[in-house]
Design a protein that fits this description.
It is a single chain. The chain is α/β, with parallel strands linked by helices. It has 20 helices and 14 strands. 48% of the residues lie in helices and 12% in strands. The strands form 4 sheets. The chain has a 5-stranded parallel sheet with strand order 2-1-3-4-5, with helices on both faces. A 5-stranded parallel sheet has the order 7-8-11-6-12. Strands 9-10 form a two-stranded antiparallel ribbon. The longest helix is centred in the first third of the chain and has 31 residues.
Length: 462
Amino acid sequence: MEAMLTILIADDEPNIRKSLARVLSLEGYKIVQAKNGKEALEVVRQAAVDLVLMDVLMPELDGLGALGSLREELPDLPVVMMSGNASIESAVKATRLGALDFLEKPLSTDKLLITVSNALRFARLSREHAELALQARAAGEMIGTSGRMKAISAMIGKIAPSQGRVLITGANGTGKELVARAIHEGSGRAGAPFVKLNCAAIPSELIESELFGHEKGAFSGAVRMRRGKFELADTGTLFLDEIGDMSLSAQAKVLRVLQESELERVGGAETLRVDVRVVAATNKDLLAEIERGAFREDLYYRLAVVPIDLPTLEERKDDIGALCRHFLRLVCQQNGFREMAITEGAIGLLMQRPWPGNVRELRNVIERLAILSTASEITEQDVQIVLPQAAAPRRQRTTAGLSLKDQLAVAERQLLVEALSDQDGNVAATARSLGLERSHLYKKMRAFGITPGTGKTDDQQA
């Protein structure tokens, strides 16, 4: 059942407040009232109000004065102004101060209800947009404290404010789009569009239309004029992903846009000027592609003003723990799950396995674990169920790319697992064999997410 929305009616005339309250109450709204602007401010400071209907002319503090204070204190609260002496000047002033709408008295019931409905809908959409933007920023946050990631973050901080073009290279799933967005968000173009195009996903015969747009009738199926990605990204950033798959014909035309900031739509004669910063990415070796004649050398040097090469996850395994926790938090938020944790033992197993799909594959695995888990934390056993290969003996794996601290933790955990296995899961016997206090062994087992296997219990041993 949805919560009842609350509307504040602020007007110095009791009859108008009573009339509006009656109409809006019948529509299912909860009504609170104020007889002047000062009282209206006190009400919104003490109660959860979803919409304010406020008269312009009121004693003590008029509606426009109260509106200015509301915008400073509660900028997201929708306000609709009312007046029996409406003028264009007052309506314009109210709009500039942040009012969503302006109603002239006497109020039409239909007009009132439509305005209230629209204002509440606009406020809801604004909140949803803000939440989505917050989630997008969280999803796009660069995670990692490894040496490579620190160096890349520092480079992004230097190049983002410039106008220099950037070429991002790296294997699939390493986060090339994430870096491109970080460059855009850190630039002076952050308020302008970020437009992306996956060059590998567009057939060669359509790539030019996607990039530069087309005029009506330019080719079969062109039933209307369409703007291309360069036009849509004007004053912003265009991210050309997998540019190594672009046709030579399209490469030549992209080169011209980069050189002259001009283009023509397919089938058009008008020359259009654009101001676009291009960030390109590829998983191919473009120098090798140049050697075999599949990529233009002049375009390469136009794009690679600043090259950034992203490491594979294998090369930054120190970041896996932080990435796991970050993705788990995001997955829970996006799916409405309760807050979950992941044990060090589970992270230890994930650090041991190879990640051919890199960060993208890790995120998918964390999402799968969160969906399938029935507990408040993801354990080593959960990882072994979802990824059976993660349970392979330690000696079959490599610690390449791990810090000394992580290698020692992996080795210690494997030693405990094997010792427990040798003692059929008997903790007391295992503690004696290792020369440890039983409480100390339990503490280590909890730290590594280890639970004893089947075998004798401590009571049976005693």
